[in-house]
Amino acid sequence: MTMTASAVSTAGELRNDIDVNRRHTIATDVPEGLGGSDTAPAPHELLPAMIASCVSTMISLYARARDWELEDVCVDVTYDSDATPRHAHVTVHLPAGLTPDQVKRLTRVVDTCPVKRALEAGFTFDRQLVLQSRAPAMAQAEMAA
Length: 145
Prior knowledge:
Helix content is about 35%, strand content about 20%. It has 4 helices and 5 strands. The strands form 2 sheets. The chain has a 3-stranded antiparallel β-sheet, with no helix packed on it.
């Protein structure tokens, strides 16, 4: 499955609005100390957020398919970007009252998270830089002058 994301910075700011699969918009920014306005997570902060939400979603989907009432599930991810290789520690907080078999099954479900699997499989990157011609509005204004 192919997914897309397009980030657009606004007027030279460090904040980006990101279109995800032409269905959703998220934002990133950087802390004030780095010249941003800290209005959204920094791009690298989205990595542990992706893992946490993916694990939580997989657990909830699994439980829902079995009519288990889980109520609240909380997933904490601590990501160490300085470690080599990079390291993420995932802690899943489950409600009381689950059977040992349910806990065992949910432990296995954590490993099915597509984000975790993608990161473990590794990545290759292609890049392309495209120089845009002048914006149409600018070109029209110059022609009128």
